[in-house]
Amino acid sequence: MQKEFSISNDKVMINFTAKYCDTPEMIFASSGFEKLLSTYLVSVKRKGSNVYQYISSSLDSTDDEEISDSIISLFRLLVTLNAKEVIKLNPPSASLLINNEQFIHFIEDIYNFWRRLERYTLLQNVKLNEGLEKASFIDANTNFSNLILSIYRKISQNVIGSEPSVFRQLPAGGNAGIIVNQIDWNCPDEYSAIKDIPFIEKIVLDLPFITYPKKNTRDGVFKEVYTNPIEDSKINPDHWFCYPAKVGSLLAYVYFHRDFMSHGIAMCNLFEMAKKEEYLGNKPDLVYVFGCKDNEEETRTIFYDDTKNDIMLGYVSHSEAIDYFGYMKKMTLTLHNLIMIKRGNLPVHGAMVNIKLKGGKSANIIIVGDSGAGKSETLEAFRSLGEKYISDMTIVFDDMGVIALDGDRVPKAYGTEIGAFVRLDDLDPGYAFKELDRSIFMNPDKVNARLIIPVATYKDILKGYPVDMFFYANNYEDTRDGRETLGYFQNAEEAIEVFRNGARMAKGTTTEKGLVKSYFANPFGPMQKQKETDLLLQKYFETFYKKGVRVGQIRTCLGIEGMENEGPRAAAIKLFDAINEL
Fold this sequence. Notes:
The protein is an alpha/beta fold. The chain has three domains: 170 residues, no CATH class; 165 residues, Phosphoenolpyruvate Carboxykinase, domain 1; 192 residues, Phosphoenolpyruvate Carboxykinase, domain 3, CATH 3.90.228. The protein contains 18 helices and 27 strands. Helix 16 runs antiparallel to helix 17.
């Protein structure tokens, strides 16, 4: 990105490398402020708002460029002079300042317009023009935010004529900042379209980070194609970024269009960012291209097994239909799972926790289930009951993991993510507020509102934990009619039938409704490779019984009306009892 400033799809990119503004005069002289003001004027004019009518009638003009020039000139004066002094010095501005209340309303409106945008700052490891080079990037972001806040306060104060009694320290600069670099990873010819896209090297977040994507659910499954979808793609590298991620033991290059910036930035709370020495000159295991503009009529969510280059490739085309973090997360995990299946490991859609109880007993427990089955919610119930029962608890994975057999054929589980992407509705009401300073919120005011929060270290998820208990999360059967909360299967065949069936009551996390089924509760790899996964299921479940792993199902009741909170809590208590019986 070479421009000083760009605004698109309610997202602002501020390029500190091209120009870093550290005075009010530099702000008002910048092309960025001019673009912001022009975009604001177009918005209020289109709505026919009272603010625009006040501005245009006061300045006796409907020419947006003329109005913009007048406002910028007035702001320059109001940063240092009060309204009375400005009127004396520049009588033409008196028309706007005569109505004090209306002008204050205008200032508040444009300031709120700015703060409602998603704002990203950028630093490239190349010196350009008036850009920032050696100053600390974190300090630069803080100082920039303070500058914007100071300008807003000074202008408001000089118009009102007095200081406010209460100062609210709102984040007014970038919501997130990134340092990017050009990286040579010996890109194959088939991937030349993404060769020049810069890699994100560092991220600084102003938390809580709240975004409002266009969609709030995911639809359909990812389909396999047999030709490389990006080989002939036209991609402008100035509009793209790459997040280098460690997905479990795999190296992933996740490329995303700037229109989906919030999803790319949110990856840092979910997947460990790879260090420069880990990807410089190295081929990734998987590549994901998110938000590519093409000529296809339908939105494509596809993957391609590039056996020639030994890369698993994911591709999602540019569309408002995929403006949901679930598409970013789940395709990344699908690509991971497809590679694991090829390597003879079993991908698991579920949650795993290592628990040590106060009585001294411990266990490694996996709860399998598709979206909304209650796996994460049962872990949350564990956490909330921790003071009474638990001495130590480590979350190995919260959504997707993999089971492999070690040298002694002992099944061990590994995680893929350092974070969790969970529904706000299914958390303890106070938990989200306690975690504000670490969290990324998505559409917190809507159904299926989501929270992305770190829950584990990369070292912990790759440690490898022997599996003690392996449960299916049954969210659709009510325990109030006498069914047991927790029960065990007698043999591998009985267990495989339930796990393979993958039944659950849909909870609104996708577009599905009612009682639905998905192969092995995992539409992210195993569903697409059922023949290969069937062989793995037989192999691993037989191993579970040979090695003494307890295999059963746990009724979370999450899909039962009125049991959304009590069900996972009761399930957690039963699991504590089961651990004590080991």
